[in-house]
Amino acid sequence: MASTIVSFSSTREFAGELDQLMRDSGYSNRSRFLRDAAIRYAELMKLGDISDMEDVLKVDGTLVVYYQHDARKDLERFRHMAGVHIHSYHHSCLRASHTCVDTIQLNGRVGAIRQMTSELKQTTDVDRVEFLVSPQRDKGCC
Questions:
Q1: Which class for 93: exposed (0-12), middle (13-18), buried (19 or more C-beta within 10 A)?
Q2: Which of 121, 135, 7 is nearest to 74 (CA)?
Q3: HEC string of the chain?
Q4: Rounded mean pLDDT for each run of 10 residues along the chain, 142 residues in total
Q5: Four-residue CA torsion sign, 16, 13, 43, 121
Q6: What's the pLDDT score for residue 48?
Q7: pLDDT at res. 138
Q8: In degrees, to the nearest 5, what angle opens at C-alpha 41 toward C-alphas 39 and 45?
Q9: How confident is the model at residue 1, as a pLDDT?
Q10: CATH assignment of 50-133?
Q11: Where does residue 9 fall: left (phi above 0), alpha (psi -120 to 50 degrees), or beta otherwise?
């Protein structure tokens, strides 16, 4: 696929803030930062966030759950929740932050996923829950 250069003008102040945000986000290349930000924004505008989607819509995505180790026993009940199909499940212990993280690739109806994330957020010792909807395509991989 051929690349096309897209550019825009801004104030020096905004450009400086943008460069700082780029560095704070772990990017060293402004073009890649802006490309990824534009793609994410376009996806949000097209699909909306899961909180804005209709309950019956089926989506794929990744659920990320940060928690304290003792919460693991409470998380088991979410693995077989109705309306959600888990494709893969990965657990890691993050030593520097003394936090566990599970990444779960799943699909299901938005209403069921929204219920799952809401209940997870209210579970004791769960620190953070995020669901990232996968990009929607009509053709390609898989």
A1: exposed
A2: 121
A3: CCCCCCCCCCCHHHHHHHHHHHHHCCCCCHHHHHHHHHHHHHHHHHHCCHHHCCCCCEEEEEEEEEECHHHHHHHHHHHHCCCEEEEEEEEEEECCCCEEEEEEEEEEEHHHHHHHHHHHHCCCCEEEEEEEECCCCCCCCC
A4: 83 92 89 86 73 88 92 82 92 93 95 93 92 79 70
A5: positive
A6: 63
A7: 72
A8: 115
A9: 65
A10: 3.30.70.1150
A11: beta
What's at 4, amino acid-wise?
A: T
User: What pLDDT score was predicted for residue 142?
Assistant: 67
Question: Which residue's entry shows tokens 């930000």?
Answer: 37
Separation of first and last alpha carbons in the chain: 20
Residue 125 contacts residue 68 (beta carbons within 8 Å): yes
How big is the chain, counted in residues?
Answer: 142
> What is this structure's pTM?
0.69
